[in-house]
Amino acid sequence: MDFFAKDIRNIALIGHSNEGKTTVAEAILFNCKAIDRMGSTTAGNTVMDFDNEEIARKISVSLAMASAVWKDVKLNIIDVPGFFDFEGEMAEALSACDSAVIIMGASGVLTVGAEKAINYCLGKKIPMMIFINQMDKENADYVATVEALKAKYTNKIAPIQIPIMDKANKMQGYISLMSGNSYNFSTTGREVIPMPKEYEGDYNALKEKLIDVAASNDEELMNKFFEGQPISQDEIVTGVRKGIAAGDAIPVLAGSALQNKGIINLIVQMTRIMPAPEVSNEKLFSCQVFKTIADPFVGRLSLFKVKSGSIKSGTVLNNVSQDKTEKISGVFTMKGKKQENAETLYAGDIGAFAKLTNCATGDTLCDPAFKTAYPAIEFPKPNISLCITSKNQGEEDKVFAGLYRLREEDPSFNIIKNSETAETLIAGMGEVQLDVICKKLKSKFNVEAVLQSPKIPYRETIKKTVTADGKHKKQSGGHGQYGHCVVKFEPLYDKDFEFAEEVVGGSVPKQYIPAVEKGLLECIPHGVLAKYPVVNLKCTLLDGSYHDVDSSEMAFKLAASLAYNKGMAEANPVLLEPIMSVEISVPDNYMGEIMGDLNRRRGRILGMDSDGKGGQIIKAEAPMAEMFRYSTDLRSMTQGRGGFNMELNRYEEVPPMLSGGIIAKAKADNA
C-alpha cells in the first residue's frame, strides 16, 4: 500500500529515562497489529531495544524505528533514549520527525528529562503532545503532574482527556474532551460508557479551557467565540491542531503503556491532531540520512527521510555531501532490527537503505538531475574526554578501526589523537555513553578497550635568569670531539621560545651557532623537573670556545644540551598547568552549590549573567586537572539541568603544595 505525506505521521517518543518510551512504542505497535504480542524491557524482548547493551542495561542507548498502520494512516515511530548521555540520538530523531510525544511518569512533578525534551521542541519549533504514562503505579497523580506542567509552561498546556479513576485510585477509563465520549478500558481495548456524573463539572470546565485554546489559534473561531456562537468538535480539532503546529498548544493525555490502557486514544490523537510532513512539490527524489547503524554481520544501514519525489530499488543517486554515486539495491522500512521490503517510498516517509558504500549520517542523496543539499544535523558538543587503550597488547589497530565504525552510528562522540601525550581520547556526552562504546567494541568487533583519565599536558618554565656553560670534550684515537658554549637562560613572556646570540670575537664560529640552537630546540620538549615541554624560554648564546680539528656540529649540539640541563636546574624551574575558561548554565536555585564546588576545584568566578530563562550563566576559570569528570558531577548536582562548555585559556604555575606529587608521579612513570 502506498502512503503519501497527508497520510503519514513521523513521531519521536522522547523524555526522561525509565518513564516508558519503549513500552509505549511496543503498545502502539501491538494495537496497530504490527506485532502479535507485547514484549517488555524487563524480559529484554521488545521490538525497539534489541542491542545487547540495551537488553543488559534495560535502557535504550540508540534510537530505533518501527512502522505501523492505523486506519489508513502510517505511523513511523522512533523510540529515542532518555538518558542524557545519548542526547545526540534525539537530535538525529527530531531531524527526521515532524512531531514528538513527550512520555513522562505520573509522579506529580516535572522530571528533568521531560523538561529538557519540551524545551528542545519549543526551541526547535517541533510540534508535540504529552502522554502521562505509568498511571497504574502506586501514588500516580495525573492532576498534580498536569499542574506541574502548567506551573512551568502556563497557557501552553492543554489537557484533552480526564482520567476516570476507580475506588483504588487506578485509571479505569477516560473522558475525551475532543469528542465528548467517555470510555472504559476493556480486554479488547476500550468501550463507550455514559459520562460518570461526578466528572461532569470537571468536563465542562476543562472543555471551556480547550475551546479557549482552539479559538486563540484560529481567527475565525475567535470571532465565533466572542459572538457567543457554538464551536463544534471538528472546529476544536482544527484550532488545537493549529495551536500544536505553532507551538502554542501542548495537548496532554494519560494512560498505562504496560497495561495497554489509553494507548488507543494516544494513537487516535496522533493521527488526528499531529501534523503530517511538509514536503516539497519537487517531483525528483531527494532524502537526508539521519541515522547510520553499523553492524559487522548485517552491514551498514542508513535510515533516511524522503524530502521530495519517490524512491524504489535499482535507482542510482548522487551523494551531494560527498560527491559520490550510490546504487540503491534495496529500499526498506524498519521494525526495530528487522528490515521489511518496500516497493516505493514517497515524500514525507521514512525508510532505510542497506550497504551504501559512501554515505554518512547527515548526507543528502538525490536524483542526479536534482542537486540540492539539506542542512547538517546539529549535534551537542562533547563535554567529557577519556583516554582509550586496548586491553590486550597488539590490538590497538582493531580498537581504532572499531571506534571509527561506531562513530558512523554515533557522530556525537569524537576520536582525538593527542600528539603531545601520544594518547587516543574519545570525547562524548558522559561516562555512560563512553562505557557503552567500549562494550560495543567487544560485542560487535570482538576487541576489548579500557578507559582511563587522560594525562594532563603540563608545561615547565623558569622564573630566574641564569648563565650556564656546557663543554663536550671527548678524546679517542684519531679525531676527538670538542664543543663549548655559554648560554644565558631567562624567562620570556610573549612567546614559547626565542634564540639569540651575542658572540664576540668569533669564540663560537658562525657555522656552529645553528647547531647550538638546534641542540637547545631538541632539549625543550623535556624539562628538568618532570620531562614536560618547556615554554616561555629565551636562550642567548654569549660565549664559548672551539677546536680547529675536533669541533663539529654534533659536539656543539651536545654542549648546548649540557648547558641546558645545568642552567634550567638553577633557574628556579616551575610546573605549569592548563587553565580552562568555563561557562556553566544552571537554574538559579543551584547557584550556591555550583559556586562552592568551583571553589573546591581551585576555580575562580569571573562573573554571572542571566540566561533570560530563569537561570544563570557562570563564567569562571579552573584547572584542567580538576575538570575531567565535571559533566558527571554537574549533572548530579543539578539533577541534569546544568550544562557547560570549556576551552583552553592559558597556563599557570601549579601551586607548590601540589607540584611535588605531580613531579614524583611523572618521574615514576618515566622511570
Q: What is the overall number of helices?
A: 16
Percent strand:
25-35%
Rounded to the nearest angstrom, the distance between the terminal CA atoms is 71 Å
Main β sheet profile: 8 strands, antiparallel
Work out the number of β strands: 34
Determine the fraction of residues in helical runs and give it as a percent range: 25-40%
Helix/strand-derived category reads alpha+beta
Rg computed from alpha carbons, rounded to a whole number of angstroms: 33 Å
Instruction: Detail the poorly predicted runs.
Output: none
Instruction: Please tell me what the overall shape is.
Output: elongated
Spatial strand sequence of the major β-sheet: 16-15-21-12-13-20-17-18
* Average pLDDT figure: 93
Question: Concise description?
Answer:
This protein is α+β, with helices and mostly antiparallel strands and 671 residues long. 29% of the residues lie in helices and 32% in strands. It has 16 helices and 34 strands.
Account of the protein in words:
This protein has 671 residues and is an alpha+beta fold. The chain contains 16 helices and 34 strands. Helix content is 29%, strand content 32%. An 8-stranded antiparallel beta sheet has the order 16-15-21-12-13-20-17-18. A hairpin with a 4-residue loop joins strand 15 and strand 16.
Notable features of this structure?
671 residues; alpha+beta; eight-stranded antiparallel β-sheet; seven-stranded mixed β-sheet; elongated
Give a topology summary.
Blueprint: E1 8-15, H1 21-31, H2 52-57, E2 64-70, E3 73-79, H3 87-96, E4 99-105, H4 112-124, E5 128-133, H5 142-153, E6 157-159, E7 161-165, E8 171-176, E9 182-186, E10 189-193, H6 200-216, H7 219-226, H8 233-246, E11 250-254, H9 263-273, E12 286-295, E13 299-308, E14 310-311, E15 316-319, E16 324-327, E17 331-335, E18 338-341, E19 345-346, E20 350-354, E21 364-366, E22 384-390, H10 396-409, E23 414-418, E24 423-428, H11 431-445, E25 449-452, E26 459-462, E27 466-474, E28 481-491, E29 497-501, H12 513-523, E30 537-545, H13 553-570, E31 573-587, H14 591-600, E32 604-610, E33 615-623, H15 630-638, E34 643-653, H16 656-670
Parallel strand pairs: 1-3, 1-4, 4-5, 5-11, 6-11, 29-30
Antiparallel strand pairs: 2-3, 7-8, 8-9, 9-10, 12-13, 12-21, 13-20, 14-19, 15-16, 15-21, 17-18, 17-20, 22-24, 22-25, 23-24, 26-31, 27-28, 28-30, 31-33, 31-34, 32-33
Helix pairs in contact: 1-9, 6-7, 6-8, 10-11, 12-13
